[in-house]
Amino acid sequence: MITAIVLVKADVARIPEVAEAIAEIDHVSEVYSVTGAFDLVALVRVRRHEQLAEVIPGRLNKVPGVVHSDTHIAFRAYSQHDLEAAFSLGLDDAD
């Protein structure tokens, strides 16, 4: 699975509508409104690299109200479960 983190600048007056439209796009798993230089963060998950071109410039960037986007491709995922295993001392949790 290929994961892309897409940072989106949106027309400020349309942020909720832009977020909802992006969330409806196939392969977009989550959309968050955030503080900072960008307004939204969208997580895109696809099986093939070529699908990113279909989803991000092909659909997401064409949503009315999207002003700019910046895409980052994830190399590796570290879930909370993985982090707990990495720092485990091999001791059973005490109940």
UniProtKB/TrEMBL annotation:
<feature type="domain" description="Transcription regulator AsnC/Lrp ligand binding">
    <location>
        <begin position="6"/>
        <end position="76"/>
    </location>
</feature>
<dbReference type="GO" id="GO:0043200">
    <property type="term" value="P:response to amino acid"/>
</dbReference>
<dbReference type="GO" id="GO:0043565">
    <property type="term" value="F:sequence-specific DNA binding"/>
</dbReference>
<protein>
    <submittedName>
        <fullName>AsnC family transcriptional regulator</fullName>
    </submittedName>
</protein>
<dbReference type="InterPro" id="IPR011008">
    <property type="entry name" value="Dimeric_a/b-barrel"/>
</dbReference>
<dbReference type="Pfam" id="PF01037">
    <property type="entry name" value="AsnC_trans_reg"/>
</dbReference>
<dbReference type="GO" id="GO:0005829">
    <property type="term" value="C:cytosol"/>
</dbReference>
<dbReference type="InterPro" id="IPR019887">
    <property type="entry name" value="Tscrpt_reg_AsnC/Lrp_C"/>
</dbReference>
